[in-house]
Amino acid sequence: MTIIVNGARVTLPDDPRVSLLDLLREHLHLPGTKKGCNQGACGACTVLADGERILSCLALAVQYQGREITTVEGIGTAEALHPLQQAFVEHDGFQCGYCTPGQICSAIGMAGEIKRGVPSHVTADLAAEQIPLNADELRERMSGNLCRCGAYNGIVAAIAETFAETAA
Ligand code: FES
Ligand code: FES
Questions:
Q1: Rounded Cα–Cα distance for residues 113 and 52 (Å)
Q2: What is the CA(145)–ligand 2 centre distance, in A?
Q3: pLDDT tens digits, residue range 42-67?
Q4: Are 98 and 35 in contact (CB under 8 A)?
Q5: Which of 100, 103, 104, 145 has most ligand 2 atoms within 8 Å of its beta carbon, as the pocket-test mutant?
Q6: CA proximity to 6, closest of 54, 55, 72, 94
Q7: What is the DSSP code (8-state) at residue 53?
């Protein structure tokens, strides 16, 4: 059984009980994805599965057989940052950085949801052609990603700037 992680096909371990988060961190030595609560409450472990954001601590690796998983290591490098990573730097979107990989993955997944017209709890006009990416939408949609440092204002500014086009 295999799974594709950041474009590379990897074999799943024989023990099928490993979480996707532990597969990434312990087996594949990709420490970017963080283990915060390990129970679905903090968002630190967010990765993309076929472009959709998921909590890897709540996922069994075996559920994602044949699927494409993207972690923060697959989004940008120190030499070639993703535009969202660059915006996080410019807007002081992180302090300790522990939540940042999850925030980055979550925001990219969120932008895809907005583009597809998926409404949120605060979307006022469900018939609108394009959901506006305003602060209310952004905060609601990113509410599953906690930041103990309280870098929220920088995070909101970075995401809004990067994905302004999505909402235009
Ligand atoms: S570590 Fe997965 S949600 Fe907190
Ligand atoms: S930057 Fe420290 S937890 Fe968010």
A1: 8
A2: 10
A3: 999 999 999 999 999 999 999 999 99
A4: no
A5: 100
A6: 72
A7: E
